[in-house]
Specification:
Layout: E1 2-6, E2 9-11, E3 17-24, E4 32-38, E5 45-50, E6 57-59, E7 67-72, E8 77-82, E9 91-99, E10 102-106, E11 110-114
Parallel strand pairs: 2-11
Antiparallel strand pairs: 1-3, 3-8, 4-5, 4-9, 5-6, 7-8, 9-10, 9-11
Amino acid sequence: VQLVESGGGLVQPGGSLRLSCAASGFTFSTSWMYWFRQAPGKEREGVARIATGSGNTYYADSVKGRFVISRDNAKNTVYLALSNLQSADTAMYYCVIWNRGVAAKWGQGTQVTVS
């Protein structure tokens, strides 16, 4: 099982990024996926979740209206589009397999820095 995140980087406040998570080694199409983030000295925060169907999504209040989670089951990839980024969004972003309310597997993360 492997999750490989990409797309992070340095962006100015108000800017946008799109994170990608390429999945392999498991049945992606039947797996719920989650994006978490963790900033230095802060607790890990679940920011967006998507069920097997793209119509069932969840967003943390801190990102609602600015972030959009999506998935392409044909490409075994989940995405997180980040817009109107703020300094508070600076964190390492992780892709996670979400299995019955538990994080089953974490990716290595991709860094987003807003400055």
